[in-house]
Amino acid sequence: MTALFAAVDIGASSGRVIVGSLAEGNADLQVVHRFPNGVVAVEGSLHWDFEALFAEVLTGLKAAAEHAELVGLKIESIGIDTWAVDYGLVAADGALAGPVFSYRDGRGSSAVAGVHELIDAARLYGTTGLQHLPFNTIFQLATEQDLAGKQALLIPDLLAYLLTGRRRTESTNASTTGLYDAVAQEWATEFMAALGLPVDVFPPLIEPGETIGVLLPDIAARTGLPVTTPVVAVGSHDTASAVAAVPAATTNFAYISSGTWSLVGVELDSPVLSEASRLANFTNERGVDGTIRYLRNVGGLWLLSESMRTWEQDATEAPAPGSQAPALSLPELLAAAAAEPAGGPLVDVDSDEFIAPGNMPARIHAAVQVAGGELGTQPAAVVRCILDSLAAAYATTLATAAELSGKRVDVIHIVGGGSQNELLCQLTADSTGLPVVAGPVEATALGNVLIQARAAGVAAGTLENLRAIVAASGSSIMYGPRDRATI
């Protein structure tokens, strides 16, 4: 019998509601609603339009209910995954208290020095194992002026609360806050106290596979779903769901969840909390089934998408006299970039200067010039620089991850949108000297659905069993490393 599950999967630039079906050991996904997402500037700050975001989720769930009715089945449950670190504050009366800030706002940077004065950086890492990023939740919370009577709900938990009325914090996302004890696997309340934060600033923890609650009556009425429909915690940090769906046939694998950001690392049984790990800025984030996602946030395809946005804007607003705006399709740009000579200039894709929206090509050219290099003015040269730089960063990061963790890596799995970028996949194989398996593109949604399916008793077993379902459900592409002399 086929079972249906609704996966709400939202990234920093777009979101989808997907109906996943599971039958006879195979998973299938159907997108029933797509919608844009992005930051909005309000009085000099960058926020998420959360009201619009939630409205889109409801529209998507209504579409999921209609799809289920059309095929004569029901939605067994709902799972939600999004990006990490950002949150909304909920007041004592249950209402959202103020805007939902974006991590790209930069407000967290102003709190870093003050937090480290109260909690030594080495001590912070020794407990949380979290990579230092200026937008981590701990730094964002430190900028709040009034938290009395309020709770912080991470984005997927906030969406779940609006659907069910129940407040919980899913553990994989909790581990990205800088206020989660990686060893004890509970809130680091001593850090909350040291920063003057309420010790109950976050709701209680919940594990992937546990039920958060059922739909509120008005939500059920608006979506057409039964009021008994459960909202089930999944790996609510989208990377946790993506890694759960890596179709690995061996434990000796590395992963790159490639999208707006690149999450590059290995899967471990326990955290690495050494000083060497801290200095290398690796993070220990919780994965599904208590695993550790030992990784670094590396710059991602944001550099490419923001460059594309700039070129398209320039072509629209100021085309060359007497000519039409140039074709800027991604396939054409990638083909032109592949024809660019190897060994071109590289930039540090992790640099803070590439985080904010704006003219990305100009910033890339400036970074190359500062480093003493030269970069052609054509878009293809910029694209090749971005992809070469990403592949080089992946190689360095994975080599360090293997060294610090003692994990042997025989193969690299690239999942997410970047798995469709043939040039990036090939350059990664070339840079690392390891085979790259690309796909699935929809790893995050697959992981979301499979955790729900296991909770419903439709899929059984360990992560290895779930990954076998992924491997059986779709094709992947292998890229072997090329001899550098032939590139």
Main β-sheet, spatial strand arrangement: 18-19-17-16-20-21-22
Query: Mean of the pLDDT scores?
Result: 94
Gross geometry: globular
Question: Residue ranges: pLDDT <50 for 5 or more in a row?
Answer: 320-325
Largest beta sheet, briefly? 7 strands, mixed
Separation of the first and last Cα atoms: 50 Å
Number of helices: 17
Q: Name the helicity range.
A: 25-40%
Based on DSSP secondary structure assignment, what is the total number of beta strands? Answer: 22
Percent of residues in β-strands: 15-25%
The structural class is: alpha+beta
Integer-rounded radius of gyration:
22 Å
Task: Describe what you observe in this structure.
This protein has 487 residues and is of the alpha+beta class. 37% of the residues lie in helices and 22% in strands. It is built from 17 helices and 22 strands. It has helices at residues 50-70, 112-118, 121-128, 137-142, 155-164, 171-174, 189-194, 217-223, 238-244, 275-279, 302-317, 330-338, 360-370, 379-405, 422-432, 443-455, 463-473; strands at residues 3-10, 14-23, 26-36, 39-42, 45-48, 75-81, 87-90, 100-101, 151-154, 169-170, 180-181, 186-187, 205-206, 211-214, 230-232, 253-258, 261-268, 283-286, 292-299, 411-415, 436-438, 477-479. The strands form seven sheets. It has a seven-stranded mixed beta sheet, sandwiched between helices. Helix 9 (238-244) crosses helix 16 (443-455), helix 11 packs antiparallel against helix 14 (379-405) and helix 14 (379-405) packs across helix 15. It is globular and about 60 Å long. The N and C termini lie far apart (50 Å). The model is unreliable at 320-325 (pLDDT under 50).
